[in-house]
Write a sequence for this structure.
C-alpha cells in the first residue's frame, strides 16, 4: 500500500475509481476521494456486485 500511497501523492491524484465487471459484463464500481482511499487502506465493494446482473 505504501507504493500506491507514494504514487497517488506524487501524481496529485484526487479521486480513485474502482470498476469491475459484473456477471453480465457491465462495469460496476465506485469513485472515492484519494485521501479517503488512503486513510481507509483501500476500497470496499458489496459482494452482490459479483453475483447479480
Amino acid at each position: 500500500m505504501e507504493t500506491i500511497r507514494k504514487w497517488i501523492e506524487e501524481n496529485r491524484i484526487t479521486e480513485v475509481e474502482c470498476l469491475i465487471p459484473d456477471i453480465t459484463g457491465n462495469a460496476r464500481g465506485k469513485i472515492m476521494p484519494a485521501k479517503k482511499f488512503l486513510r481507509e487502506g483501500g476500497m470496499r465493494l458489496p459482494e452482490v456486485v459479483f453475483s447479480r446482473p
